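Hi,

Apologies if this is the wrong queue. I'm a grad student, and the batch job for MFS transporter from Marinifilum caeruleilacunae produced an output file that my downstream script rejects. I'm not sure whether the problem is my script or the file. Here is the sequence I used:
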Amino acid sequence: MKEKSSIAKILPVMFGFFIMGFVDVVGIATNYVKSDFQLSDTLANILPVMVFAWFLVFSVPTGLLMNKIGRKNTVLLSMAVTFLAMLVPLISYNFAVILVAFALLGIGNTIIQVALNPLLTNVVSGEKLASSLTLGQFVKAIAAFLGPIIAGFAAGSLGNWKLIFPLYAGITLISTLWLWMTSIDKEEQEEKNVSVIGCFSLLKDKYILAFFIGILLVVGIDVGLNVTIPKYLMERCSIPLDQAALGISLYFVARTVGTFLGAIILAKYAPGKIFIYSVILGILGFIGMLVVSNLILLSVFIFIVGFACANLFSIIFSYALKRQPERANEVSGLMIMGVSGGAIALFLGVVSDAVGSQIGGVIVLLVCLLYFLYLGNLFAKTDKK
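Support response: The file is valid. Your script probably expects a header line. Output copied below for reference.
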C-alpha cells in the first residue's frame, strides 16, 4: 500500500494554498484603486465583487470538471489562469483593465479552491483532514498577510504598488511547475454520471445547506473586513491610507497565528467545540471594534477578530466533506460556490455610503457572525452521532 502522506507530495499541494492566498490582495488593491481614481465606496467595492462573483458561476462546474480531468490537472489549470491574471495589469493601468485582471484572478481562485481541498485528501489520511485543511489555511494566511506589506513597500519605496503583480506571477509559475512534476496517487473516481442539478440536489440535506450558508457568510466576513479595515481605521483614527493598510496585515497576522495554532489544536480536540469558542470570541472582538476609537485598542480588537475567525472556514469545510465523502468533488464545488459571499463587500459599500460611516458595514459583519452560533449547535449534534 502506498504511503498516502508522503512529505514530497504534501509540500507542493500545501504551496498551492499560498497561491490561493493571492486573492486577498483585493482588499488593499481596492483601497489603492479607490485613491488612484477617486472612486466612491460603492464603485470601488465593485473590485472585490469582480473577484468573488465568479465563485457563484464556476464553482459547481469546476467540481464536475474534476470528475473528468482529475483534481491535480484542475489545480494546474487554476494556476495557469492566475498567472495570466497577474500579467494583465502590466499591460495598462486603468479601472477597466484592473477589473479584467481581478475577474481572471477570481476565476483562477474559484478553480483552485474547488480542486485543492479535495486534492489534499489524496495526500493525507481522513482523520487528519480538519487539521490539514487548517494548515492549508495557515499557508494561505501567510500570503494574505504579506500582500499588504508588499504592496505598501512597493508603493512607498518603489513608487508603484502594482509591482506586486510580476512578483506574484513568478511565484505562481514556480508553484505550477512544482506540482506538475510531482506524482500524486490517482484519486478514487467518483460517479461520472453527474450534473449541475445533481450537485445542487445536495442542498436537500439540511446539514449541507447549513454548511453552504456558513461558507457564504464566513467568506463575506473575511472579505468584508479585508476591504473595510483600512477605511474604518482612517475614519475612526484619522490616519492616512498607507498606515491604515497595515490594519489588514495585522488582521492577517492574527489569522496566521490562529490557523497555525488551529492546525495543532484541531489534531487533538473536537473541531465543533473549537468552532463555538471561536465564534464567541469573534463576537466580543466585533463589539470592541464598535465601541472604541483609540488606534491601539482598535488594533487589539482587530487582532482578536482575525484570530477568532481563522479556523471557521476549514472547520465548516471538513464537516461538509465528511458529511458525504463519496461525493467529495461535488460537495467541494458546492461549498466553494459559497465563497461568492465575498461579494458582500459591495453591499457593505452601499451601507457605508448610505449611513455615511464605516460603522454600518462593521455592524453588518457582526450580524453575519451571529449565524455561527446556530452552526456550532449542528456540529455538536454531528459529533454525537
